[in-house]
Amino acid sequence: MNALDWVVLFGTLGAIIGYGIWKTRGPADMTGYLLGGYQDRWLTVGLSVMATQASAITFLSTPGQAYADGMRFVQFYFGLPIAMVILSIAFVPRFYRSRVLTAYELLESRFDLKTRQLAAFLFLLQRGLSAGITIYAPAIVLSKLLGWSLNLTCLAIGGLVIVYTVAGGTRAVSQTQKHQMTVMLLGMVVAFVVVLRRLPPDLSFGNALSIAGAFGKMNVVDFSGGLGSRYTFWSGLLGGGFLAMAYFGTDQSQVQRYLSGRSVTESRLGLLFNGLFKVPMQFLILLVGVMVFVFYQFNPPPLFFNESELARVARTPHAAELQRLQAEHQTAVQARRSEVDRLAGALRAHDAAAVDRARAGVQAAAARFDDVRARTKALIAASVPRPETNDADYVFLSFVLANLPRGIVGLLLAVILCAAMSSTASELTALGGCTVVDFYRRSLRPNESDAHYVRVARACTGAWGALAVLFAVFAALLDNLIQAVNILGSLFYGTILGIFLMAFFSRRVRGTPVFVAALLSQALVVVVWLTTSIGFLWFNVIGCAAVLILSQVLPL
Amino acid sequence: MADEPRELHDAPPFLSWRAIYAIVLGALAVEAVLGAILTALYS
């Protein structure tokens, strides 16, 4: 990081946050604070919805995932456009006509208070825990690669978000997200162009894809069946579709975003904008990761991208073994480079037989390279306490820091911090709003003034923010809890979606059967998670289907 | 409805809702086909 990078980083963040606070200054009522007073146009809604979903980990992990596992993760998003169409038709008009401030408020008018508060409680539990992870996950990567203090990074990200969300509410979030999303998209396009320019000049884009394909990275679509495989066309379409329906249709952090639209039309168009551009955006981010992978076929990659872990091993009695692995790694990199050069030559010559022979050579060299990496991970696991053996999250930022020009590094760090702040901001306003509307105003203090509720909403937003920062600061001590939190999200969404589908499409069933069915379905999903190896995307389908069936057959 | 609140206004400013839904779903179909072609060509 040099002076220009710092100027770009702080200039970008400062301008966006300053604009957001200035644009939303002045008093607000509850509708204004929680839903922005129905002022946003469809482009703002669409960018805000996309920015809420795009956390920093999207930009750190997704290229790393493509580097390690290829393009197939894009299938996870294939159900999203279908979900956006269904939500636009079935959910958005109902939310508007019910004049609700939170999605769960609607459940009381259709069923009863306990069903509303069950759904709201599941949201607070899941989103409250994940808000801390949204801050912690990028902070740990940034702190290790840049030498920043982990706690200060968590405090800086969380503190900035708390300031503008408490001050301006949903409208400040939407206004900042519009510009944050623009910076994110611009940053990824710049990263893609720069990585292409860093490839050998005589390597065409098509041949770069062929080299990636020889390593199995161009597995964009997989039509095979089977519930155990996490990313296939069918799991993405069905499981990903249900997850997207549940997330965008019932998670207050998203519902709040599109209910801020000026009208049903603006909200619908915002969601459909997301449906149109989400898959191409994820494709681009994954392709950046694949091109970084091709770059490292012509340039030596580090043995392990999280080099702080290697430094820890070097301070143990296993240091000599690490040195041997480093030497083996250099040999494996050179051998792989020779095979890749041979493949590139065969591709340039359009010699199909030579290409086939070279691909076999590349795959054998890749296997030797992967073997050294696997033994390095085993060494890390055996040498240090609390080892981190997955370095996928470090691949992209390591590449950026080592290979991108001045100023662009600052821009891409701004992308990551914008993403961290935009998703956290939506989470905090939704958590604060839900706490006040679904619990405080409904059950504790129902007859206070609007100004009182706005004050309490600000306080709750700030309190959830402080809790998220505290969780992030102490998350390093809670490895297993972090894993559990990541799984928690996919455990609850199916049940909540089932409740909403019953509310919207079943006129006959009353609140108690739905409430009991939701509890039983949640228990069923947890049992399936604990006792089977079914991919987590299917939990959304199972939980939702169980609520729909049980609520109709229970004799209550 | 003349007395309908502004936020309940529900008509697209361009094309029709059916055409917009067709564009979103059609784009998904094109992306899936392109993905299958890329997989077949480069894997």
Task: Describe this entry's structure for a reader.
The complex is a heterodimer of chains A (556) and B (43). Chain A is mostly helical and 556 residues long. Chain A folds into two domains: 448 residues, Sodium/glucose cotransporter; 83 residues. In chain A, helix 3 crosses helix 12, helix 8 crosses helix 12 and helix 17 packs across helix 18. The longest helix of chain A is centred in the first third of the chain and has 48 residues. Chain A starts with a helix and ends with a helix. Chain B is an all-alpha fold and 43 residues long. Chain B is 60% helix and 0% strand. At the A-B interface, helix 5, helix 9 and helix 12 of A face helix 1 of B.
Low-pLDDT stretches of chain A are none
Integer average pLDDT of chain A: 89
The ordered H/E elements of chain B are H
CA-CA gap between termini of chain B: 56 Å
Q: What's the N-to-C terminus distance of chain A?
A: 64 Å
Report the order of strands and helices of chain A: HHHHHHHHHHHHHHHHHHHHH
What is the averaged pLDDT score of chain B? Answer: 86
| Fraction of residues in H or I helices of chain B | 55-70%
Count of distinct strands of chain B: 0
Q: CATH superfamily membership of the largest domain in chain A, which one?
A: Sodium/glucose cotransporter
Secondary structure layout plus pairing:
The complex is a heterodimer of chains A (556) and B (43).
Chain A: H1 3-23, H2 30-35, H3 42-53, H4 56-69, H5 80-98, H6 105-110, H7 113-146, H8 150-197, H9 205-214, H10 233-250, H11 252-258, H12 264-298, H13 307-314, H14 319-348, H15 352-383, H16 392-403, H17 408-444, H18 450-474, H19 479-505, H20 511-531, H21 537-553
Helix pairs in contact in A: 1-8, 1-17, 3-8, 3-11, 3-12, 3-17, 4-12, 4-16, 4-17, 5-10, 5-12, 7-8, 7-17, 7-18, 7-19, 8-12, 8-17, 8-18, 9-12, 9-14, 10-11, 10-19, 10-21, 11-17, 14-15, 17-18, 19-20, 19-21, 20-21
Chain B: H1 17-42
